[in-house]
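Q: How would the structure tokens look for this protein?
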Amino acid sequence: MRKIAGLMISVVLVLSTIGIVMLASTSEYEAAAHYHDRYYFLKRQALYLAIGMGAMFAGYFVNYRLYRRYFWLIGAITIGMLAMVIIPHVGLNINGSRRWLRAGPFTIQPSEIAKFAVIVVLSWWMSKHDDRIREFGMGIMAPGALLLPFIGLIVKEPDFGTTIVCASVGLALMFVGGSRLRYLSVISVIGVVILALIIMHNPNRVIRFLAFLDPWRYEKTEAYQLLNGEYAFVVGGFSGVGFGHSLQKQFYLPESYADFIFPIIGEELGVLLSMAIVLLFVGYFLCGLKISASAPDTFGRLVAFGITMLITMQAAFNIAVVTGCIPTKGLPLPFISYGGTSLIVSLGMVGVLANVARETDVEKLQRLGAIKDRARRI
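A: Here is the predicted structure in token form.
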């Protein structure tokens, strides 16, 4: 597993490096206009990356079984932070959403932390009750009840993108953990209906969905960002216009350094390097699945699978959004988009995934040592 973990970490480091390099290009105009410092976002992201690297190394050296012991603390603290976000004058209201807490000169986004907490809590339940997980109550109702507080509070912010990711990862963990597919299918349909009803009662979300169906009708409003993102890919073509020469980043594509950084990559570096990024995420996905399949216990297997699916699914959703395949959602591209909490948590989870691989090797060596001891005694 050491080679697989090393390959996975190498992939993540390459993606993070691409993120820093592209942020230097995509953010310079908006940083200069709003903060009078063209390197404002770059310097902050470099700091987040340094902290994230520390979180990754910490995750690598802390035995993942510790999260199973303290799952309740991880879940309780995360739910408390999610609740604080929606309290007036406590959570920060930015563009009509309450998703952040102020921490001095920085902000914390608890919904990013909730992604890891959901994985830990559900993995604990599924591994603890794996002998009864085929039952409706133990395999669907109970883990669903554990997932509900996280989902409900994230919807309240509102953050539908993170809600969909957390719910999808939760269902995937239930399936891999042994829950019956027919039960999960019913729950999935009910969840989609509920989410559709919530969206229907939110005029902004309805218009955003209509803009996805007919973007040219809303080209000056809700579909403005989407169409300019697609235009960036068209202009970039196969080889791109060259690093630093994007036109769309010059206030045509708002906040291109965040959720819509991938179109700028396509414009400046072309479709070839854009596809290389997609292949890097595929490589991460395959490494994560290998680590999960080889984990020494059920909890490790589920945690590794959850982390693998979470990051891969978020990357797939982001790329699908900016290419017009699904309606617009506020989801960053892991390791590449600007965002402190997202980068730090993602790198920390990579460290946890690497620790599962490390403990797999440790257990194999212990088993091998035990076999050799028995052979000597014989």
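The first strand starts at residue 91 and ends at 94.

The chain has one domain: 2-377.

Upvote if useful.
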